[in-house]
Amino acid sequence: MASGDDDDPIIEEIDVYLAKSLADKLYLFQYPVRPSTMTYDDVDHLVAKIKPKQQRVELEMAINTMSPNYCRSKGEQIALNVDGTAYDETNTYSVKMMDKQTFSSIQATTNTSRYAAAVFRKGELHITPLTGILQMRPSFSYLDKADNKTREREAANEGGDSSQDEAEDEAKAITVRFARPESEQARQRRIQSYEFLQKKQAEEPWVHLHYHGVKDSRSEHERQYLFCQSVDASENTELVKTPKEYLAMLMPPLAEEKVVKPVGPSNVLSMAQLRTLPLGEQVKTLMKNVKVMPFANLMGLLASGTDSTSVLRSIQQVALLVQGNWVVKSDVLYPKNTCSAHSGVPAEVLCRGRDFVMWRFTLERSVMRKEIASIIKLPPEDVKEFLEHVAAPRINRGWEFLLPTDVDFIKKHPDVAHRQHMLWLGIQSKLEKVFNLSKEDFMPKNTPQPEPIHVSGEQRLQVAQDRAKENQLSLQKDLDARRAGSSVQRPIATSEDEPMDTSSSLSSIPNGSVNGYPNATSPGFDYTNGGGPANIPSPELQDFVIKTFGKHFVLTLNELKRLLNLHVASMPVGQPVFHSISDHMLQDAVLLCHCKQIMVPFPAQSTAAPDEQKVFGLWETGQDFDKHRRLLYDMFTKNYRLRRNMIQAKLAEELGDVPKSDVDRLLNECCKSHAGMWYLKGTIQS
């Protein structure tokens, strides 16, 4: 337990005995079509029979024809349909009325080793293993008999003089054919056929039984066998085990597990089996499973010491270079003479559509699904599958390529990058003819952004404060000049400076940015928002940030933007409080409101977007509990996930004895639990 207190004491010990007298003939009957309150204990059981090998049971039970709920006319009609008008000893219903029903069993489970019947008496528990668990359901075989009667009557009415037919049959020649010897494969198919199994089941004879009611003396006598007949430990040695032996029975050694471990499914990749294949097959198998991968990750999956030149030669045969990463070729995923599992579209058409999707990602980071579908004109399921191979959906951004551009690989292997570029030019010319594309379609739709440079939260806070002071001084000078009757011209961004960010979208990022934020010395002012500097967060925005972090404590930039969008949407019409807010302005407001960025070390294979990897936490509220959060944030700068006992140990080391309630509060405010590990809110990766 997390608290370490033993609050679940043992209150009683019960001796358990294994009874074996009925171990090979004890069955559990279930009646799934009958409520538990309506048992058959008081119903007359007319016939009972069993096939022990097949564990098949049939019971015939009487129907109370005198019950007010019984429909006599319907019962007579059923009996007439089944037996006809003539009386015969083989009739199903002897009284010309349906006065009984048959129950037939099916096995609820074939493995009953986990089930037993237990009886508790005088502080002792006696258990008896079950031989079978059978579900008793009504049998409607009488309807088959009625159908046969109907067909016989129809055949008799339609039949004429059969003597002539018989004479003609006698005059016909008979052709004799000898069966060929049965092959082993044919014999196996015959043995596994339904007809053969039905025949084998019919060969086992029925064993007729005599039914005894629940209150019968014989039933009472048989129930005594549910108790262990001898309590002498020397005769019941199977359950007398040492603690070590008993533990071994509960948790068998790993060697035993390997023997009984089932064969893995075909869609699971075994690295041990993979490395027995030739290098080319290893690369092909990995790319078919992963779909998109950086070259460094591919080398890490292969055996140590593998020649990178050979891997490069192999990867170019099964994959194409997209933004410095390798994406499996379409014809590897969709070989010839195959078709789509979703729509049945031929592989040739699928390859053209997927090549178009890959080619678009060589030009831009994100694509729109509707635009892709309108050009390649394939079913939505196939288009979605193409995108899921190489991209992930992002809010208001369409589908974004899964991995960042691998600039290191392009710089290290310029010859490979150039060869792949020429290959894409060839594919581009084919796509132009197939989809009738214009020249504008071959130009990137997004202005390429420079590689982000990560800066710490403290640096960003200092830059924001300095920028705010400079803007306030400039604004004060402007106002003083106006009062004195002079004019001051509004500064204009030159080519060396960054243009002012006037986008109303939260996801817009201007050119010339550092880590997605504009240059700290940008001179642009925006007098449309109350005449204040554009880079100073408004009091309303700061108030929103303070209230939001006071409620959530930890937020990613992506989640904060989502909450801001919801807040703006809920504001009254005509109240333009948040005008032209960019990402950097929102982050400035966060850093100015007693919050800090937590540099969470996400794993290299993380698929989180940049906005999802920027994590901010409430740093200072003026309460003593702030030091608990700061210690937690510091731990998450070293690992993106932690165990509870590690957090408890760190708090105890730095702050002394911390109550369990404080630990629970800290984790509930700042973290989420998944698979036994704790993550900061918004950082759990699926």
UniProtKB/TrEMBL annotation:
Q: What GO CC annotations are associated with the protein?
A: RNA polymerase III complex
Q: Which InterPro entries match?
A: RNA_pol_III_Rpc5 (IPR006886), RPC5_C (IPR045576)
- Which residue numbers delimit the DNA-directed RNA polymerase III subunit RPC5 C-terminal domain? 444-686
Annotated Basic and acidic residues bias: 146-156
Name the residue ranges with Polar residues bias: 501-522
One of its Pfam families is RPC5
User: What ranges does the record give for the region Disordered, renumbered to this chain?
Assistant: 146-171, 460-534
Gene Ontology BP, a term: tRNA transcription by RNA polymerase III
Q: What protein name is recorded for this chain?
A: DNA-directed RNA polymerase III subunit RPC5 C-terminal domain-containing protein
